[in-house]
Amino acid sequence: MAIYSLWIFDRHSNCIYSREWDNKSKSSLVNVNNAKDTAKLLFGTIFSMKNISQNLSKQNKLKSFSTLRFKCHFKETGSGLKFCLLTDPELEDMQFLLDEIYTSCYVNHVVKNALSPVDFRAGQVIGSEPFTSDIDRLVVTLPSFST
Predict the structure, then answer these.
(1) pLDDT at site 60
(2) What average pLDDT score do residues 11-35 get?
(3) Which of 85, 84, 138, 86 has its CA nearest to residue 109?
(4) Measured between alpha carbons, how far is 72 from 87 in angstroms, rounded to an integer?
(5) What is the CATH number of the domain that holds 91?
């Protein structure tokens, strides 16, 4: 079981942060694939799954969905931010991690930062090293990260 990547989209569907981990080579990438088709496909999939979920039940909110290769854990904030965590399909619910990333990392390093934009322009990303370090601290210490 493993955690593959974290993606953050703003309310305008721009990918403002991506973090990918490769557990085998112990390497990681930050904001490398934001402009590529991967981010667009992921956002489109989340958008479609969210619409299907809402059409099936007005009470139901999309929290995760699985394929044969990955499980997508999803959190949307009141301001329209979308947090997406891709993991191994066998991994348990990771909503607690998405909540922690939002409250302790995003709020502390982006919302409370006077130099950070309120609305990100197309192509603009979160480039804060303390933000990335805090995310790594949360994710890498999980037992499910290295197994």
Answers:
(1) 65
(2) 71
(3) 138
(4) 7
(5) 3.30.450.70
